[in-house]
């Protein structure tokens, strides 16, 4: 499975590795003229604003960093990815210029309202998330696919801190449904690196950490024994493959 | 894990069981005045229209059935679920009436364009899916969270044919990225029922079945040995918990 996946990723991302550190620019102060959606707007509840303020304070000493977020992908590295990755037929149609980042394609407050903070030393990514009314699954609650999306972006950005990567495996246990318009915290952490394989955990909890909405089962035989620091439980984990053709997996 | 999940679901869905067969109305001819989104629209590509026509022909002898799809949940059973499930505070705010089904909350052609067909005898659900430009993950390709969503709705509806159920576990292997605007087929099948536990597989392939975009790893120890009929591989599997308080799991 990994062999097959790695082969494709190596081919697709071959040219990217010529720009080492490109992915890290996601976390740099590159000049941006587009709208940054990872900032408070009128749809944010008091809970989300309070949490945002708490994390912004943590950023003051440089231990944490807020990640900006756009409708189009912000980094040159990703644009290069597109240039080499996207089917030429699609590019000719010039439709791709109208494409928008899935999680930012909703009107304010109706979709994914979130902001992510990264701690470089702890290799930990936190996503503060408020699910809008257009993310409904069973009546009154956030859709399981939307929850999977929050997990994917949080663990994905945690992986990106290590280099350009794509999700290879996602194993999610849904423990309790998340009410629409509530605020939850996705806590993601890099657990292990094996060659190009990144193993990242994630758990979604209530603000007071008393309710665990989403947690883990360990699906990769190589990843056993990584209990969550606080609960002793193994949280949801995602496997990412780092794009680095100098060290092929196969 | 299952014990905890089942306890919550039993509590939440307690009253639902008083209306046996309610979930099956999803597949009935109940009178509906809302717009059905699971029908061709101008954004559908030729590929999606051709596939739709093929499956509509299969419906003529009654072996397959097209599932309608709405922005609000169509069944009385789900409305009752909301009445008992949603936090009273949220209900007071009357915001929930503005909630929309996640997968139908996009403008025509920009989000999830799909239609599902169900084969009752084979216990198999097929979803024909075209990913719009607002579902972008890495440039030019459908977001991993959007793919997880397609898997969740396809396996979820397959589960609903057996009774009201919620996703408990989702284990996804991403093998190859899906280009935006391309048409793929999600093929889902009920594999096993153990009490209230439903085990459902799903694989996403290209129309010609030559490309496997998403497949499985078996994550539940009770579900080994269910190879895919065609490929011999074990496709992605989802675990659902059926809401049936007469037979508690705990």
Automatic annotation (TrEMBL), chains A, B:
<protein>
    <recommendedName>
        <fullName>Acyl-coenzyme A thioesterase THEM4</fullName>
        <ecNumber>3.1.2.2</ecNumber>
    </recommendedName>
</protein>
<dbReference type="InterPro" id="IPR052365">
    <property type="entry name" value="THEM4/THEM5_acyl-CoA_thioest"/>
</dbReference>
<keyword id="KW-0378">Hydrolase</keyword>
<keyword id="KW-0472">Membrane</keyword>
<dbReference type="InterPro" id="IPR029069">
    <property type="entry name" value="HotDog_dom_sf"/>
</dbReference>
<keyword id="KW-0276">Fatty acid metabolism</keyword>
<keyword id="KW-0963">Cytoplasm</keyword>
<keyword id="KW-0966">Cell projection</keyword>
<keyword id="KW-0999">Mitochondrion inner membrane</keyword>
<keyword id="KW-0053">Apoptosis</keyword>
<dbReference type="Pfam" id="PF03061">
    <property type="entry name" value="4HBT"/>
</dbReference>
<keyword id="KW-0443">Lipid metabolism</keyword>
<keyword id="KW-1003">Cell membrane</keyword>
<dbReference type="InterPro" id="IPR006683">
    <property type="entry name" value="Thioestr_dom"/>
</dbReference>
<keyword id="KW-0809">Transit peptide</keyword>
<keyword id="KW-0496">Mitochondrion</keyword>
<comment type="similarity">
    <text>Belongs to the THEM4/THEM5 thioesterase family.</text>
</comment>
<feature type="domain" description="Thioesterase">
    <location>
        <begin position="140"/>
        <end position="210"/>
    </location>
</feature>
